[in-house]
Amino acid sequence: MGGDLCCRFLLLLLIAGLPRDTRAVGAHHLDQPLPGPTPESVRRTDLAWMTLGFMLVPFPVVLANRHDEDWRDEDHQFKDGFTKPPTWDDDDPVYNYVLHPLAGSEYYLAARNRGWTFWGSLAYSAALSTFYEYIPENMIQRPSATDLLTTPLAGCLLGEARYRLKEWIRRDPSAVPAARFWITLLDPLDLSIGGYPDGRARLYFNWKHAF
User: Fold this and answer.
1) What are phi and psi of 144, to 5 degrees?
2) 120 and which of 116, 153, 169, 177 could share a cystine (Cβ 3.0–4.6 Å)?
3) Domain membership of residue 75 as a residue range
4) Cβ neighbours of residue 180 under 8 Å, at least 6 residues apart?
């Protein structure tokens, strides 16, 4: 029951956080010609591919460490993740409070950079974090309550700070020394695929598209 309510809450946040043009797509009249691709539609497609990447990347990492005694719980079975509550782990603080929030901020920025609201981006980050804990990592150990909280919550705060600072620099790059460098440092993942400003996906690093 609690898991069902949590899923519904995340779904509502995701819907509320969608860009306006996405929520209004049903208002298009059938007798009107369909518009061509827009930067917004390209960004949605781009986000779909990024989501797929976020979901697939953990599997080889988990499989490569499946025999690591510091990571694998020998008594754990996959079904335990769904029949037992998540555990409060005692992992290295660097993993719990640095790397997981950093990953959460990347999830958050993937949505935020494409027009999602703060709450929608938080829900997107929480959904990906939940997927990671209950599917790939659940293959070798119980889902972590610590990670389920710190990844999206600390991640959204870090992600929003990175987002606002980046947008502040972009508003007047001439006023910031080495502006391209700072934007690259703040958001290298989004810059590497050319997610802005024209919405065209680019699968190579090119910082001239930062503005």
Assistant:
1) -100, 120
2) 116
3) 10-15+37-172
4) 173, 207, 208, 210, 211
